[in-house]
Amino acid sequence: LADPALQQYVNLVGQTVACSSPKPALFGGYHFLVLNSSEINAIACPGGLIFVCKGLTDLATNEDELAAILAHEVSHVSLRHGISSIDQARWTDFGLLVAEESAERWGTSEIQNAASDYGDLVEDVFSNIITKGYSRETEYQADSLAVLICSNAGYDPAALTSVLESMSRIDSRSGPGFWQTHPSPEDRIASINALITSLPQTQIDPARTARFIEY
């Protein structure tokens, strides 16, 4: 999305919640990008690159809700859901091949083939994330962690419920993407209600409200 001010704002909120996550620091850092799409969807990639569709950010009615959306995606990264979304056996086979071949015949065609296989593994990760999404169980896990992250960052943990309630009012739930890869908003709300009620709710900061309206 060609809107530098909005991109900067989303990164400000995203970095804030990331700092309160179990993995506040990554090798390449967290990077948040708003996509020029009306879809209700987001993609959290291994390594901290997080894409959020404009259609999803538009659901947020205040900064706390935006923070909840981003915290859910940060949770996927913190919980390593991207890496675990592919067959662990393929990583093991690749590691064994490199260990054996590099010791004896470094630079041979076998190692080149291993590097090619590594590229295939990367493609597998992104193919799974984009076309299949994460498992429904990992979505519940990300919701639970997102609630805790929001609370730790000073945002209202109930904001995630508000976002999910907005999603539940969307009538059209067909087609590929979010609706095919995520549990229903109603089920997600029921899953996190007990956790939310056990956490202190924070007051919405007027300064945050003004900042949200500006962007």
What does this structure look like?
- A 3-stranded mixed sheet has the order 1-3-2.
- It contains 10 helices and 3 strands; from the N terminus they run αβββααααααααα.
- The longest helix is centred in the middle third of the chain and has 24 residues, at 109-132.
- The mean pLDDT is 80.
- The radius of gyration is 19 Å and the shape is globular.
- The protein has helices at residues 4-19, 54-57, 63-78, 88-105, 109-132, 136-153, 159-168, 178-181, 185-197, 206-214, and strands at 31-35, 42-44, 49-53.
- Helices cover 61% and strands 6% of the residues.
- α3 (63-78) crosses α6, α4 (88-105) packs antiparallel against α5 (109-132) and α7 (159-168) runs antiparallel to α9.
- The chain is mainly alpha-helical.
Q: Runs with pLDDT <50, length 5+?
A: none
- Beta percentage is 5-15%
SSE-based structural type: mainly alpha
Question: Which descriptor suits the 3D outline?
Answer: globular
Strand order of the largest sheet: 1-3-2
What would you report as the Rg, rounded to the nearest angstrom? Answer: 19 Å
Count of runs of 4 or more consecutive helical residues: 10
Short description:
This protein has 215 residues and is mainly α. It is built from 10 helices and 3 strands, in the order αβββααααααααα.
Question: Topology of this protein?
Answer:
Elements: H1 4-19, E1 31-35, E2 42-44, E3 49-53, H2 54-57, H3 63-78, H4 88-105, H5 109-132, H6 136-153, H7 159-168, H8 178-181, H9 185-197, H10 206-214
Parallel strand pairs: 1-3
Antiparallel strand pairs: 2-3
Provide the descriptors you would attach to this structure in a database record.
single chain, 215 residues, mainly alpha, three-stranded mixed sheet, 3 strands, globular
